[in-house]
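FORM 12-B: Structure-to-Sequence Request
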């Protein structure tokens, strides 16, 4: 549980807003302020923070999957599963894949 005066992580606020069916057009700073005045929203945010993980960056998920497919294609399903689980996110292969994604995006 966070202290009331602590700022809630953005990903938690976004998820809580979705679950409440609120319009997500307001900035997250608004929702962090709303959390201070609405006890139910505050409890929801605290539960999300306590029991869930932040979403994986789509670029990182793509890099993991690219590496996993290389290992899977080489008959190494255990290594592929480890890449998909994020066990090698700091390794050279995933970092190279992230760099490749960034370079490709800059050329678009």
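FORM 12-B RESPONSE
SEQUENCE OUT:
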């Amino acid at each position: 549980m966070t202290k009331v005066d602590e700022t809630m992580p953005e990903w938690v606020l976004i998820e809580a807003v979705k679950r409440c069916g609120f319009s997500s057009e307001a900035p997250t700073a608004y929702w962090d302020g709303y959390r201070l005045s609405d006890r139910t929203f505050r409890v929801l945010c605290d539960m999300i923070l306590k029991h869930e993980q932040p979403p994986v960056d789509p670029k990182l998920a793509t890099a993991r999957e690219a590496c996993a497919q290389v290992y899977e294609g080489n008959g190494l399903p255990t290594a592929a599963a480890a890449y998909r689980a994020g066990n090698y996110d700091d390794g050279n292969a995933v970092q190279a894949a992230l760099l490749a994604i960034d370079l490709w995006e800059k050329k678009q």
